[in-house]
Structure formats: structure tokens, C-alpha cells
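request received
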Amino acid sequence: MVSFIAGLLDATVQAATVLLLAGMGELISERAGVLNLGVEGMMLVGALGGFITTVLTGSHWLGFGVGILLGMVLALVHAFLCITLKSNQVISGVMLTLLGTGLTTFFGSGWVEESISGFPQITFPLVGQYLVGIPVIGEALFRSTATDYLALGLLVVVWYFLYHSNLGLEMIAVGEDPEMADTMGVSVFRLRYLAVLIGGGFAGAAGAHLSLAFSQLWVPGMTAGRGWIAVALVIFAQWRPRRMLVGAYLFGLLDALRIRSQSISLTLGPDAPLAGVINPIVEFLMTPQIMGTYPYLATIIVLVYAVIRTKSDQLAVPSALLQSYSRETD
Amino acid sequence: MSEDTTLRMEGILKEFPGVVANDHVDLSVERGEIHGLLGENGAGKSTLMKILYGLYSQDDGEIYLDGERLDLGSPQDAIDAGIGMVHQHFMLIPRLTVAENVVLGEREPAPAFRSDAADSWLPAAVRNNSLVQSLAGQFSLGLDVPEQRIQDLADQYGFDIDVSAKIWELDVGQQQRVEILKALYRDVDLLILDEPTAVLTPTEAERLFDSLERLTDEGLSIIFITHKLTEVDAIVDRVTVLREGQNVGTAEVSSVSRADLAEMMVGREVLFDIDREAVDLGEPVLRAREVEATDNRNIEALSGIDLTVRQGEIVGIAGVSGNGQKELAEVMAGIRDVTAGELVVNGEDITGAKPKTFVDSGVSFVPEDRLQYGCAEDLSVMHNATMKDFRDGRFGDRPFLDYGELREYAETLVEEFDVRGVSDVTETKAGDLSGGNLQKLILAREIYRNPDLLIANQPTRGVDVGAIEFIRETLLEQRKAGTGIILLSEDLDEIFDLSDRILVVYEGEFVYETTPAEADRERIGLEMTGGGETAASPVKSGATQGSES
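response:
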């Protein structure tokens, strides 16, 4: 049992990192007013690009960098379409997800057999060697890949950037009311490009983490909807970095549980009262496909809760999300 | 050219597709004056000011500030030149604090990185390095020093503002003062105010005027955009009038009369007195008995309203805003449910029926909020013009619609009601029309169907003199055609000029009834504010007895 929980926690951390990285990127992009539904595609491109680079050069760090870069390239397309050409953000995003999926399936088919030495599990620098001995949680938290630690570090950076820097304040302003920001001398165009590119970089990093640290192999379509969960995660977190940490680990746990659901038996013994009624329900709820919907269900619950609890003008969604901006069209 | 001239705009030309918004406009503003910019909606005032603020770039013409030629590529350039602007719709982010809104774009670094910091742990050489300054300006944010400065400015001009409050916590007047603080924080010499009183109550407007006078005492120059002649009299030193994108003249306010200014604005003589012919009253079109209703927060807003309106009669309802007028109008139009009482339209009891039943019974409604309830902003003029009638079979055989017919109908409305700014009824969106023209479109839609009952709530609020005149005349014409009209207005003059009968509403009840001929304004004012209970209310047939005991 202890080893099961330790393994589950370990998988939770790994899965949470994917969501955390992709979610932070989405958060920044949306905070500036640009919805990016291309995360899934950007993650796949990052995953394949990072994987191929690592196979060819043997350096997983170089692979990670290439993954980020490719995510940004795809994001640049999104930025050009949505910010410069002012086309519909939803259409552009979905199109990029389909494009990323198609491209990586085609170009990635020859790389399925390859193997790499990706990010190794390392103990946390300095204090890790003492803490790793803590029962159950020690291994999971203090022996992980470098990207797991990096994601947590970046979360602090993102939080600081958004709330304690001028650029962050300007980015929030651009996402709330681009016209207002413009009248204050803030360049809406530049900040939105910046936010979308950062978002794409994070999505690419999430993909590269997936192929280089999480599974250490390439399978077409390996993101398996995690990009969409990242979009849901931003809503779940109500566009706030700190809540995103909680959400990412919660969704990560659900993901880890889903993969292991076959080996968990929560059914009651045949003699227990009501076993005939409860067991089929529990079995149904533990089906991997059903478990895959839990992050979305949780997001819906959070949305409903947020709408009931707060007045609509205090909802956390950036007011200018999905709105393109140009000066002379009002 | 006087040496006191601070701003000169020369030959400004700005064209939008199909429209010349500014046709070689000249404008000069003197130091320390409040310069009025007067014109109808759509005369090009806002466009001219957006050019001055760097939001639009002019197609031709030049701008000089204190003798220097300005090349304004963005609002930042205007801010750098010392120009500030308070926009008609507030440019504030409700979710952020006052201080955050004010400093946005100023790149205030963390205290340690301020070049003027007294006790920073960083050596001055590092702090003053331009790269360090740029990085600190981007990646850090210090609000303590700016907050103090904003507070000092607020104190200096007598603004009661809590700098750490969120914008949504402030009332409209306070929000406007934050807008002014935004400009003052940037040390502007020239402040543009775009219709600043449109959102203010009269008391708040008074306060604003006091503040503006204080600002000009300090040497600021102010451009004050308005279409209200009373404001020009109250506060402006010199006034420039724009009409259809052209400058029709600049004058000292003390040397021109209100009628002159109105004529300059509209291009013809404006009738401040309206001829109201006698019309014989017909059958009652509306009989409301003991109507009660609640407002959006479920608090009782109407407590027992009796109202009868006859054919050819305009019933004016006067009252201080928030005494149930909105609910009254909505109940009569069928879009708000009554909690008690009955509504009889043309002899038929339609209490509790769907809004469509009201529409089909010949009820038309001009709502108070044109953009939110009066139209679908993003739909075309054609869609908006036909919104109430497209189902009635005139426009092709159901379930199909003949768009040619719809378009023709919309074009007729646009023409007959003089709706300007429509280049193509199927292309121009209703939301792109200026306030007065949108109001004319809504009025056209509601009146062209020959209603038996018309409810007009604040039909002339926020529209310019020309449109006001047109709207009032249209209402009178409709009265002659036999429509019963309920007119709700906060403008007492309007009520007096148009109504056959005046009712005063106070806290959801009619407390006083009179006619324009017999009315005593002082009495009406008292009744509106609840101060008339001691006097006996005259009671007329078919009307109400609502005075409280």
C-alpha cells in the first residue's frame, strides 16, 4: 500500500508538471486577452521537436530548448492571426491544435521506435538528500526531474511577474481593457504578442517535459487531451497563479489515478450491505474513460461556484478575453 | 496670434470610409482658459480630440503646442507633450486599484531603483544606469511613492479618493476624479474632457465645475466637449462650434446668446418653444389599476399605480430618478411582470401576458437605455429597424423573409427619421450610430408601426439639440395621429412642453397630478422630492389619488 501511494504521488508530480507548465502559459496569454486553444498542438510540436533533438544530439536540455522554441513558432502564427489580422481566437486556436496534431503524426511516425536518455530523476539540490528519506512523500517530492523543479520555480516567477512588475500590470490592463491601456501609452500590440509567445513557449516546454521526462518516448498524440485540461485548469484556477498550483496537482492526481485505476480496488466485499448497488457504481466511476472527465467536471463545478458566489463584474475572467483591438474602428 | 495661445490645430482633415469627420478644422486654445467644443452628436468633436490625443492620425493639417509642432503617433506622444484626456466612457479598469490605474504605463520601479530615492541600498551609479532603469521599470513595480503623490494631488484639488481602493468600489463621480488624477499625475498642461457631465448627477457636475476652475487657476488649459448649452454658459470662457465636421466659428461665451449658439450648432434656427395644437381625446388605450411591481433586487418599486391614457393624450411623468419610473415603463411595455393589479390595453386585459402580446396589441416602447435594451448593437440598422415587425407577414411569406423588402423598409425609416451616419442599412451596425441617431432609429421603429400606446422613457436624454427638437416634434405628431403617449422624463421643461397631463411619481406612487397650464413648478419640485404631503392633492377623473397619509 505504501509503495502504491508513493508511486501514485510520484506520477502525480510528473503529471502535474505537464499541466502546470501548459497552464501557466495559457494563463499569461489569457490574462493579456488572447485565448489560446492551440495548446494541445503546441505541446505536441514541442514534444516531438524536443524528442528528435535529443535523439540526434543526445542532449535533453537542448531538446527541451528546441521544444520551447517550436511552441513559440506555432504561437507566433496564433499571434499573427489573432492580433495582427484580428481573426477569431477560437478558430485560430483549434486550427493550430489540429495542425500540430497532424504535423506531428506525420513527421513523428518514424521516431516511435527510438529511445532516448531523457531527464534523469535527481534529488533536490542541497536539502534533497536529507528529505528524500521521508516516508511515502520523500521520494515523490525530492527525487524528481529537473523540469519538475523548474515548473515550480517558474510559477513563482509568473506570479511575481503578473502582480509585481510593470510589464505584468500592463499585461493585465491589456487583457481587461485594451483601449484603456492604449490611452495610457501601453502598446497593446507588443504586450499581446509577448504574452502569446510566452504562452507558446510554456506549452512547448510542457510537451518537451512530457516526451523527455515523463514518458521518455514519443508516441503520436501522446498529449492525450492534456492541452485541453490546461485550458480548463486556467478556468479552474480563476486566472490566478497560486490557485493554479492547487489545480495542477489535483488534476495531476486525477491523471495518475486514472492510469492506475485498473489496479485499485475500492469495491466492497460481496457480503457488505448494499454491495450489489454500490459496487457497479464504484466500478463505473473508476473506469479510466470516466475518470478522464473529472478535471472538466471539477472545472464546471468551480465555474458554477464562482458565478453563484461573485457578482458578474467581479468574475476573474479577463474582461477583454477574445476581443481584438484596433484604434480606429470605434 | 495671441502670445497666450497654447494650442493651435490648423486645417485638420480626417476621413473615415464614406464620411469626412473633420473637414479642415482650425482650433486655438489659450493658456488658462476653459475652451468649449460644442456640436451635435457626430459633428466631429470626439474625432478632433482623438487626433489631438494621438489615438487617430489626421490625414492633413498640423498641431502646434506652445509654438512647437507636434507629431503624435500614439497617446504616449500626447502624454509626453503634456496633453491629457478624460474620455467619455471611463478608461479605468474596475478590478485594479486607483493607484494601479493611475500609474499604468508610467513604469514606476521598485523603491530601491528609483533615481530619486533617498535611502536606497543600491549605489546611485547602479540606479542611474539606463539599462538597470529600463529593467527595473519593466520587471519591478513600486506603488508606495506614487500612492503618496496621487494622495497629495487629490488633497491639493480637494478630491476625496482612497488611492488603494478598487475602482469598482467607487461611485461615478469619484471614478471621474480618478480619470482627472491620471492626467494630473502626468503633469499635463492641457486637459481634454469629453462630455464629462454625461454620467454625472447635477450635484456631481457642480463639483466637477469647481474642480475645473481650480485647475485653470493653477495654469492648466482645458478643452471641454459638450452639446449642452447650459454647461457652456456655466463654465466655458470661449467656445468653438463644430457642425458636420467643420468649424463654424469661435466666440467669447459672454458675447453670444444661447439661441445663437444653438443655431450655429444645428445650422438653422432652433425652436425652443413648441407649438402644441389641441387634440381631441379619444377612447382610453391604457387602463392600469392598482399596479404593483418590484425592481431587479426584488424590492417593491411600484406600490399601487392607477393610470389611464387616452388616444391623442401625452401623459408626462415627472420624478427624481429612481422613484419607479424605469419599472413603470417596463411594466406598461410588458417586459416586467406585475406583482399585483391589472393592465388593460384597448379594452383587453393583458396582465401577465408575454411581451409579444403587448407588441401585438399596439404597444411601442422607447427604453431608457438605448444600447442595452433599445437595440442589438452588433446587428445592422436593417435588422434593428425591422426587429418588431419582421414576423407580421409584410416581408415575404413565412417562414421565409424577403430581404429586399426588409431593406426597403429600413431605408424608408432612415430617410423619414433623418438617421445620419448610415452608409448602408445592411452594413452599418446600430451600435456604431451616435446617440442621437440611434435614438431616432429606435423611435422610427417604434412609431412607424402606428402604435396605439407609446411609452417613451427619457427619449431625449444625452442627445443633441437638433435631435431633441426632432424627437419632440415626432412625439407631438404621433399624438395628433391618435396615439396615447406616456412620457417619462427628468427634464421638467420637456414634460411641460409636451404633456397634456402631468403626474408626479414619488417612491413608486403618483403623488400629484396637474396640467401644464395650471401647474406650479415649485409645487412639482416639492412633490418630486416627497415634500408635498401636507398639501392636498387635487384629484382628477381617471387619474390617481396616491398621497400618503
